[in-house]
Amino acid sequence: MFFRIHLKILIPKEYCLILLLTVCFVQSFSQNKEGPNPVIDSFNEYTKTQREIAYAHLNKSIYIKGETFAFCVYVFDKTEKKPSQLTTNLYCSISDDNGDTVKSKMLLVTNGIAHGSFFVDSLFTSGNYTFKAYTNWMKNFDEQNFYIESIKVIDPEIETDIVTKVISSKLDAQFLPEGGYLLSDVTNTMGIVIKDSLGFGVPFVEGRLLNSKSEIINTFKTNQFGISKFIFTPKANELYQVSIDFEETKQIFDIDLAEIRGITLSLNYLKNRVILRFVTNANTLDFIKNKIYHLTIHNGSEIKASDVIFTDNEEILQFINYDDLFSGLNVFTLFDEQNNPLLERLFFKYDGIQLIETGEVSYEKEGDSIMVSIPIKGIDSSQINHFSVSVLPEGTKSYRHDHNIISYTYLQPYVRGFVENANYYFTDITGKKKYELDNLLLTQGWSSYSWNTIFNNPQNNNYTFETGIGFKANVNATKTGKFILYPISNNGLEIFDVNDTIKTFEKNGLYPFDGETLKFSEISKNKSAKKSGLYLQFSPSKIPDLDKYTKFLPLKENVFFNSKSSQPLLETSWSEFEQLDEVIITVNKEKERIEKLKNSSWGSVAVFDDKKRNMYMDFASYIRTQGFTVDQNFGELKIYSNRGLQRIQPTIYIDDRLLFYNDELSYYKLDFVDYIIVDKSGFGEGFRGAGGVIKIYTDPKIGYENNSYGSVFQDIEIPLTFTSPTKFYAPKYSSYTTSFYKEYGVIEWLPNLSADQNGTISFKISNQQANNINLFIEGTANNGSFLSEVKSIILN
Q1: How far apart are CA 491 and CA 494, in angstroms?
Q2: Are 311 and 402 in contact (CB under 8 A)?
Q3: Which of 21, 270, 284, 608 has the lowest CB atom count within 10 Å?
Q4: Which helix or strand (DSSP H or E) is residue 263 part of?
Q5: How far apart are the first and last CA of the chain?
Q6: What pLDDT sits at residue 704?
Q7: Are 484 and 473 in contact (CB under 8 A)?
Q8: How far apart are CA 629 and CA 386, in angstroms?
Q9: Strand order of the sheet with strand 772-781?
Q10: Closest C-alpha to 242, from 293, 190, 280
């Protein structure tokens, strides 16, 4: 609800707020129910397109060359704050100080989650780098819905003694009137941000507001992030300055002249209401008297509106019930009668944000390992939940992230600037932190939702929403017009038909992993397969650039390691190792595997090797040898079990997926088949097993070397594929007792944890005889709840 009064205040507002509550009356919000409203209609049109937010949990922020940069990306529906069920293609990249991409990859998102890593190899040198995680769809919007963060790489062979950067003593002082407008002859609230030459807030700086006679009008002191505010009443055409003493220098900054006409805005929060104070001056009142202005509140997806009318008084107070605000960020905007935005103020409502907490951490040593268990309070383990944990020594200096999962989801996409230490406002939340966040928002000015864009540039969605890889196949020549696409990891066999009129076919929703290719055959008139002659165009075919303006701060470098030892920091010779992401040791236990399959399966088990695959033209020819009647004809496949005079179709599975139509197996090649189980009794399937059960198990990584058999395939490389996540390996350090290891070492990274039925996440880490360790936990659960905590374990 809006509450509105018209009142001329003659005493300081700090002493009259309680009085005001006794004389206000109610005015309701409107959500465009009473006819067209250009502001609301334009906003709804602009925001009707679904948006997503990406947040990445990085295992560290400072990396030693030879380590692994690992991350887990959470993609949320921006409005619902729930894991996205739509996105599949996520792009991740690392670029250097020049903006050149060093490494990039595409990851497959499942239930809003993807995790991966980059090896910090010879392509990196000492310096600052930028990590980005985004989808192609996110490029459509002005708001920063993608993820970006600065990281640092240290090459010990180049840098052995790194100290704090030397910065200029010259300050950057920004003076920002609340609401965006400084008006003469009325009380204004002025927000202040004092930054150093790198863009970081300068803490605890004291300043003085001076008038044109150099008299002190007011004083202020910045908080730990360089933010403060003061109140003053500027006179028309008078120059005001701010004097700051810093690093033995006196620095003077001019404040812009106050406007002669206009309106100011200030916001206060009292108990269960937000109070907006609109003030004009005598020079303005006659121009705006009795004109209908509009106040809107939006959160990036919903909007409400109310009228604001100046009558005989120069001040209007709007009282807004706290319950009527949106959870998260609220954007207040005042429009004139021509719907021009005049003032804007941001306010954050913590209530309604669903946060969960962990219980007491327990651990148990098991030889060289430690088993850790963390209970999650109030979690519903039957719903999708996901957690990532970075395990570092307690004294680490390598974990310096500005954001956590809450601040990047609820705050960063809605503001224009990058918020320094945003996670502070969402960790151990107190009244003091709420007050400090409101001071921050006072200095942010206009939100990331530009009204100029909303009114003048309707959403055009130039960048498509991608779900996997697609292709368009052009047929040069064909006699039958029937083509087979063979299975890959995440896609089954498909058959395509063309004719004399349409000589192309398309396929979307392919999810190939690195190293996979597409294999095609054409079905000849004698029903055999032969190599096709297709030309394919893929989309997407490369990783798209993120060419939007991006906001981020460089890594804040307070202290770095000091290592002058001739002993290498890492035990492994990384120059020899860097060509491999993972070492896999395989042991041939095929006989044991076959015996295990036979002992655990009903029916007969046939395990295929290259020789056995080459014995049969396709699945149909093999299954005939197992006593089934088969009818295969131009994409149709019928399989029958003979039960006396009855012909009953068996139940067939591929990789435990029940097939409702057997046509998927028409001309199905065996080159990916690992083993087939045939159970003619149909035991365990009930009535559905009357015709027997056939279970096919595939392995897309299986290779074959029979060139004559392979000649029936046209093998087409895919220009862009998904990268499978690899197991994280913590590096081996030369010593686990040095200050270097305690400050920059890595113990473990767990990107893919879920709670068990008891609501507990459990994992194993190596025991490096550390005294204490820190667990940096991020995650989501309960269909929209967030977890961000740091837990310490004191090891006995």
Answers
A1: 9
A2: no
A3: 270
A4: strand 263-270
A5: 57
A6: 40
A7: no
A8: 48
A9: 748-753, 386-393, 772-781, 785-794
A10: 190
